[in-house]
Write a structure and sequence with these properties.
The protein has a single domain, classed as Growth Hormone, Chain: A (Up-down Bundle). The chain is built from 18 helices and no strands. Helix 5 crosses helix 7. The protein is globular and about 50 Å long. The termini are far apart. It comes from Methylobacterium nodulans (strain LMG 21967 / CNCM I-2342 / ORS 2060).
Length: 410
């Protein structure tokens, strides 16, 4: 009996220690799940550019239709991103993420069935799912990591950039390995999406975790000047990024690179995004003024892309590195500003819907304008100047959005 009595306190202490360990581990597992999801939010977009020449050759796609294939998914990010708040209210943020991961996987499979209708329909479906998931995730970060939003948004954007790099750099080699033209590489990216869905399944909650802002507060958000400044910066920096995703491989091909080499340059640039995508949100989240970071990252992005379009060929790798650092920092800072400018998780979710919904809709115009400028000038000088103008506008709105204040502040 003495042995039993002595063992009970020890068992109690062990159970308590086990519960404490489980409690401490849960944020880590959530973070890992978020990273898996982040990896899968860009290959659907960045994998199209390296295959565009092959798709046009096989299908006879016109230049205008190719521009639409690049532009339409970006537009869908914005249009479908507005579903984020109602999905969160109806299903809860965790179940909403799971449901639309499945939508992304279905779209990726569909676009590889062959033929232009399936390609466009699958691209719309995958981009729509990405738009909804991307809108919901900042609210989850604000809810589960309120003390470390900058670090978590930095990790999130860094892994997202790795996914973009994988889509840009591995799609062509995957096609050669599969010997299936462009259809197989289009479909293969559904596999990691399904893996992310399985990893996220344990975190799905039965009831919604957030009711949202309510109609009056949500309407007030759309009248808030700071909210529009955050939205403008998100949209313009996204436009800079999607111009690169869509047109960089084609521009490099025009300048004498073969498709594989052009894809590798784009992949290096995308991989470089992870550096400032991690560092800028982490460091900016610790400071009261994020305006110096706006000037740094936008300047790097504009200088790098314009250098690739019209600069010396011998400097293509330094320009690609500069471009990647700038775009990674821009995107990480834009997402971090959504969290920093929001006083709570509910506001972060709705501001995310506004910034990404409206922002991505505006961003869709960027690749289209660059394509029109290229067709009109039959060169890359005017597109480079247009890109610089968009960068100037992004920097202006970013400086306003980076001031230390909250939306809906009285």
């Amino acid at each position: 009996m003495q042995t039993i009595r002595e063992s009970r306190p020890r068992d109690g202490r062990e159970n308590e220690a086990g519960r404490e360990a489980a409690r401490l581990r849960r944020p880590l597992w959530i973070a890992l799940g978020l990273m898996l999801i982040a990896f899968n939010l860009r290959p659907a977009l960045s994998s199209v550019g390296p295959l565009l020449a092959r798709i046009r050759e096989d299908t006879g796609m016109s230049g205008a239709l190719a521009g639409a294939l690049i532009t339409l998914p970006v537009l869908c990010l914005g249009v479908f991103g507005r579903l984020g708040p109602p999905v969160t209210r109806r299903l809860g943020p965790d179940a909403g993420v799971l449901a639309f991961l499945i939508v992304i996987a279905a779209g990726l499979v569909l676009r590889g069935f062959g033929g232009l209708p399936a390609l466009f329909a699958g691209s719309v479906l995958a981009a729509g799912g990405i738009g909804v998931v991307g809108v919901i995730l900042p609210g989850i970060v604000k809810r589960d990591f309120p003390e470390r939003p900058g670090l978590m948004m930095g990790l999130y954007t860094a892994v997202l950039c790795l996914g973009a790099a994988a889509g840009a750099g591995l799609t062509v080699p995957a096609g050669r390995l599969l010997e299936s033209g462009w259809q197989g590489p289009m479909m293969i990216w559904a596999l990691p999406v399904l893996l992310a869905a399985l990893a996220w399944l344990p975190f799905v909650r039965a009831a919604p975790a957030s009711p949202g802002l309510g109609p009056r507060r949500f309407a007030a958000l759309w009248r808030d000047r700071l909210a529009w400044q955050v939205t403008g910066f998100m949209g313009l920096q996204s436009s800079l990024a999607y111009i690169v995703f869509g047109w960089l491989p084609a521009a490099l091909t025009d300048r004498g690179f073969d498709p594989l080499a052009a894809g590798l340059v784009a992949s290096l640039s995308a991989m470089a995004q992870t550096v400032l995508a991690l560092l800028v949100p982490t460091l900016a989240g610790r400071s009261r003024d994020q305006r110096p970071w706006v000037l740094l990252v936008v300047g790097l992005a504009v200088g790098g892309f314009c250098g690739l379009l019209v600069g010396p060929i011998g400097l293509v790798w330094p320009f690609a590195l500069m471009l990647g650092l700038g775009l990674g920092g821009c995107f990480g800072l834009a997402l971090t500003l959504i969290v920093l400018r929001s006083p709570d998780a509910q506001t972060a979710g709705d501001l995310s819907a506004m910034a990404q919904g409206v922002g991505y809709t505006l961003a869709a115009l960027g690749p289209l304008l660059i394509g029109l400028a290229h067709d009109a000038s039959d060169g890359w000088g005017i597109p480079a100047a247009l890109y610089g103008g968009l960068g100037l506008a992004a920097a202006t709105l970013g400086l306003l959005a980076a001031r230390n204040r909250h939306v809906l502040a009285r």
